[in-house]
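Late entry, written up from scratch paper. The run itself happened at the end of the previous shift, but nothing got recorded in the book at the time, so transcribing now.
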Amino acid sequence: MAEHNAKTTIESVREWVVEHKLRTVGCLWLSGITGSIAYNWSQPAMKTSVKLIHARLHAQALTLAALAGAAVVEYYDHKSGAKADRYPKFLPMDAYSRKD
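Output as recorded:
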C-alpha cells in the first residue's frame, strides 16, 4: 500500500512538472543561484565579483540542464500521445463542425 501511495505521489509530481515546465525551470534557476551564492560565500579566498560570476554560471548550467529535461519530457509527451489527450477537453471539436 505504501508503494502505491509513493507511486501516486511521484506521478502527481511528474504531472505537475509537465503542466508547469517554465515555473519548474525558474524555480530550479532560483534554487541553483541561491545555493551557489551560499556555497561561494563560504569560500573566503575569492573576491565578491568572482563569487557572483561563479553563482551565475552554476545557475545557468542548471537552467540549461532543466530546459533540456523539459524538452525531453515534451518530446516524450508528443511521442506517447499523452499531450493529444489534453487538448480535446479544452477545445470541443463538435462546436466547430459545419452544419449544412
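Helices lie at 2-19, 21-41, 48-80.
(Scratch paper discarded after transcription.)
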